[in-house]
């Protein structure tokens, strides 16, 4: 990313493209497993299984980060996505009484459009990443490049503006969620009994 | 070669600790609870004060029939106990028990690793709750998930406070930086962390997900035999992990009033045992909270306290530099 051109050129000369070292083979294998889990996630007809396959896909991604020596990012990936996002997903699924076994109506007429969007997004991402990092190699014997210290320094030194912009965006989303879930905010307390579906959440921001 | 041997010995030691400590804790719980309630507890198995009671229990569990309910989702039902138990084994690997490199495996972002892996254990309860095809199990799973949203944030914030104080995320690094006055400095964060940890482990007073008098045994209602024993083992392993983590993060781990070098592991174990005793004590003496009371406690008490602790940590950190 910040490597100078001559260093990357040197590195590219020293390695062939996809030279089969042990780590690279492992990277590819884990990548295939991750891709497989992701495909099953969107094609399975059992809702909760889809969420659990998502765990496998996200965990596979964390392993890929580890293989790229980005240790900190890997653990954050597990903490946020596997530990919180998937638990929220499962929570939502359980609230809707996700049945055991196949859900015949778990299908969408938009599947081809979704596939097209997914392929386009994947193609764009792969193109950008390959274009940017094709000649970048990680020196496994040198200083660790993905440690907390390195990640923190590059985040708060070079990328501090996007970081802060993202935090403002998230804050806006948070405030929006509170406003949406509070029913007593416009015109006093018009709480209707029977519409307390989100009461648990609303109380959090509302009453105390 | 010696590297491989070194790693093997370390992993073997962690595995032995993983097998022994939860059993010791389980036996202690039997006896401590009994004496607090004016009973004797197990007295016969093994002879001396019933020391072999848990082994007898294990034999009993192993003999029981392993039942999978007809309506259950077989594979997920059978997988759930492993998902609940294994994270605790992984966490034990990175907890340092003594000075130097007396740790299973050094990890740079140790705190993140620990909290991330502990979060996976909750998936085991959710899988069990859903796959059992039982309304009590489903309620237990729902409560588990709701509980997670309450405790995860204060736990992270409290751990972040220690990381700020030490200037590192690695657990051995935090202990290297430790001074005795960190204990009063970080005490609020420590209490928040321990309380949130109790909620994660679903121990009383936060045992609504398993509340046996309301929803039988929550997500574990349909389990029998060894798989049920694995869930129980996960609970005790979780207590060991939580107490060891609180010791390392907030009580100075292997630091002690004297004998810092040789007695390091002794101090760690002693502090961990003391905290484990408190966990058992709380079980005997506190009634169960309701799920919404936990939410209220977390969002109106624990999170503000944790944020105040972070502010205090920041101020003190700037002042002493």
From TrEMBL, chain A:
Gene3D superfamilies per UniProt: NADH-ubiquinone/plastoquinone oxidoreductase chain 6, subunit NuoJ
Key word Cell membrane present: yes
Originating species: Streptomyces netropsis (Streptoverticillium netropsis)
Listed EC numbers: 7.1.1.-
Keywords: Cell membrane, Membrane, NAD, Quinone, Transmembrane, Transmembrane helix
Biased composition (Low complexity): 190-199
Molecular function via GO: NADH dehydrogenase (ubiquinone) activity; quinone binding
Family classification: Belongs to the complex I subunit 6 family.
Leading EC class: translocase
Stretches the record annotates as Disordered: 189-208
Localisation: Cell membrane
Any GO CC annotation of this UniProt entry: plasma membrane
Name of one Pfam family that matches: Oxidored_q3
Name assigned to this protein: NADH-quinone oxidoreductase subunit J
Keyword Membrane listed: yes
Phylogenetic lineage: Bacteria, Bacillati, Actinomycetota, Actinomycetes, Kitasatosporales
Membrane topology listed for this record: Multi-pass membrane protein
Catalyzed reactions: a quinone + NADH + 5 H(+)(in) = a quinol + NAD(+) + 4 H(+)(out)
Function: NDH-1 shuttles electrons from NADH, via FMN and iron-sulfur (Fe-S) centers, to quinones in the respiratory chain. Couples the redox reaction to proton translocation (for every two electrons transferred, four hydrogen ions are translocated across the cytoplasmic membrane), and thus conserves the redox energy in a proton gradient.
Regions that span the bilayer: 25-43, 50-68, 74-100, 112-130, 159-181
Automatic annotation (TrEMBL), chain B:
Subcellular location: Cell membrane; Membrane
Keyword tags: Cell membrane, Membrane, NAD, Quinone, Translocase, Transmembrane, Transmembrane helix, Ubiquinone
Enzyme Commission number, as recorded: 7.1.1.-
Topology term for the membrane: Multi-pass membrane protein
InterPro entries in UniProt: NADH_UbQ_OxRdtase_su1/FPO
Main EC class the enzyme belongs to: translocase
Pfam family, one: NADHdh
GO MF, one example: NADH dehydrogenase activity
GO BP term, example: aerobic respiration
Membrane spanning residue stretches: 79-98, 110-132, 153-175, 181-199, 228-254, 266-285, 297-320
Gene Ontology cellular-component terms listed: plasma membrane
Protein role: NDH-1 shuttles electrons from NADH, via FMN and iron-sulfur (Fe-S) centers, to quinones in the respiratory chain. The immediate electron acceptor for the enzyme in this species is believed to be ubiquinone. Couples the redox reaction to proton translocation (for every two electrons transferred, four hydrogen ions are translocated across the cytoplasmic membrane), and thus conserves the redox energy in a proton gradient. This subunit may bind ubiquinone.
Assembly and binders: NDH-1 is composed of 14 different subunits. Subunits NuoA, H, J, K, L, M, N constitute the membrane sector of the complex.
Record-stated family: Belongs to the complex I subunit 1 family.
Protein name (database record): NADH-quinone oxidoreductase subunit H
Organism, as annotated: Streptomyces netropsis
Gene: nuoH
